[in-house]
Amino acid sequence: MEKNLTPLALAIVGPGRMGQLYARIADEASTMELTAICGHTAESTQATAAAHHVPGYANGDIQAMLAAHPEIEAVIVSASEWAHLEHVLASLDAGKHVLVEKPMAISLSDASQMMAHAAQAGVHLMVCHSLRFDMRFAALRQAVANGAVGDVLHLYARRNAPQIAVERVMGRFPLAYWLAPHDIDMMLWTTGSPVHKVMAYSRAGGQARQDFIIAVFTFANGAIGVLESSWGTPAVSGQPLTEQFTVRGTAGIAELLSNQSGVGVYRAGAAPEYPDIGYTPVIHDQQEGMFRRLLHHFVGVVRGQHPPIVTGADGLAAIRVAAAIDRSLREGCEVIIPQE
Fold it and tell me: What is the pLDDT of residue 2?
């Protein structure tokens, strides 16, 4: 297949931390051309747009942006989680390919609508399940897929954030949809099997009291998974094991050594530093890391150079499990997920 060397015309909705990261990656890539920025507040939207020398559209006016720039081919939706549906549907209905930040949606109904609109429009819908582009997680999953651990017996995933991290989203949507989809997707990708049953636990008192979720998954192939998602502890120094992923099988074990970055900086009178070399490092004045790989992969998918590593269907599968976690927490019972 002949490669299309024309830069992909991109627009970004949501000029927050992730939107600014994607804007920088696009600016530094010859395969992308940042065309416009759309955001909720005028100040942040215009500041980000000016920094990248593109027009800015405030008040979340995605329709105005799409109407003014018919050359846009794809839209990255990195707006607040509760604003995903509006912006994703507007982009899909305009015939644009979409890359939407995790979580894809904050309800199963919203995710299903996105899938239906993408199918109707005949465009690509990808979800930012970024762990698939983290070389450590990808290498672990590849080892499992190659049979290194034999048949998977059980998995364990941990993703713990400090208390301050949840302040932006607490009370706006069920917290099962917040961080958990990262590890739900990784478990689904690693096992190659859907989740059949979910039982979840947290402290009593409803969503306002939740400061952790522990969930037990039974996969259709018989494997068992345990997910730990906590934001109930303060930020601490050192290298606590706040992220973990382990797969045990009939022939071996695969595990992610998340608190061993491979680089340490030690100075007299100062706390040790462990530079980021995986998520968003800047190396040789270029934005590197898994999000750069994700965005370049998205461009290749749109250009027909390769199939997507992660799809809207993968995003929907993770949301289906998140919805089961939320229901289990609310009703205090095991939830059966119907198999399609």
Answer: 56
